[in-house]
Amino acid sequence: PAKQVFIRLESTRTPRNCKLGATSLDSSVAASADEPSSAADLVPKGDELDKSIFKLALPAVINFMILPLVGAVDTFWVGRMENALALAGQAAANQIFSSAFWVIAFLPSVVAPVVAKAAATGDKETVRKRVGEAVYVSILMGCVGMILVDQCSEQLLNLVMSNASPAREFAEPYLSIRAYTFIPALVATVGFAAFRGTMDVVTPLKISFLSNLLNIIADPIFMFRLGMGVAGAAVATGIAEMTSAAIYLWLMTRRKLASWSHILRPPPWSSLKTLLLGGTGVQLRSVALNVAFISVQRTTLALDSTGTAAAAHAITVNLWQ
Questions:
Q1: How far apart are CA 162 and CA 152, in angstroms?
Q2: In a 3-state reduction of DSSP, which class is residue 12?
Q3: pLDDT, tens digit, 9 for 90 and up, residues 66-106
Q4: Among candidate residues 319, 318, 294, 11, the one with its CA nearest the CA of residue 159
Q5: Distance of CA 239 to the CA centre of its chain
Q6: Contact (CB, 8 A) for 57 and 20
Q7: Could you tell me how far CA 86 lies from the centroid of its own chain?
């Protein structure tokens, strides 16, 4: 049977029982909460249960609103270069990086329920162990992603543009620099999942706000004052992601969510198997989605040689997100 964790909150005004979440290590969804006695129990009543849900939901929603700013900020400043090919190249390189990243970054979907299970039982040592193992695996997979993108950047860019594409001169330096941000980006996603697993959604919100603010400030400095152009946008984003990862690691160790002994120790195969098998479904979904995204990116770049269509598409996608 699936190992499950249920978090129940009971209202002090109205006897409503609600299961906030049910998760399992084999990705199955459990359902064993009490059935509501009437349809009225499904309507928010402003009681303690609703307040608790709102306190968790609001910061999480704001955080997910902030996350797309990473790509939008780069798009904004690259657009200020007034060169459609620069924006088209940056968008193409960013799509390759994002596709490779999200195919690899299945850990958060597995870490949050595993941490929630241990936290619900008050087993702090297991929490530290599971988070430490996830960070170790994220660093390992980050190294794989970094080497893959760095050494095969030309072949990967061929997926979205031809060798003769004029936008390639802007895409290549951007992708080469972004390749080195795989490790901090993966560590940050694991940190986000670890705090979410302990029902702390405010801390990730603060970290996301700080890192995106840093990115907003650093982009024009590296791109225009230092004359790095599109490559400067990649450098600024990398600095923001490294800052985010460093803060997550510091807070996780300080708040006893992780320990360096677990982070630096290779996890046993039984733990690795849980993480890898739990992320299989997520990986398959990511592969399917990103095949479509790459196909669309290649089509827009092929529409015209000026990069105007691809630049317009990049702006539209960022607005949609």
A1: 15
A2: coil
A3: 666 666 788 889 989 989 999 999 999 989 998 888 877 77
A4: 294
A5: 16
A6: no
A7: 25
The pTM for the full model equals: 0.77
Q: What is the DSSP string of 217-269?
A: HHHHIIIIIS--THHHHHHHHHHHHHHHHHHHHHHHHHTTS--HHHHSSPPPH
Two tokens, residue 162: 């031809």
The single residue listed with the structure tokens 């630096």 is 264
Alpha-carbon gap, residue 158 to 145, rounded angstroms: 17
Backbone angles phi, psi at 24, to 5 degrees: -140, 155
Q: How far is CA 170 from CA 73, 93, 100, 175, 298, in A?
A: 17, 9, 19, 9, 15
CA 305 to chain centre: 33
Angle between helices 124-151 and 168-178 (to 10 degrees): 150
User: Could you identify the residue written with the tokens 């459609």?
Assistant: 84
Q: Which two tokens stand for residue 249?
A: 């690691």
* Backbone phi, psi, residue 82, to 5°: 55, 45
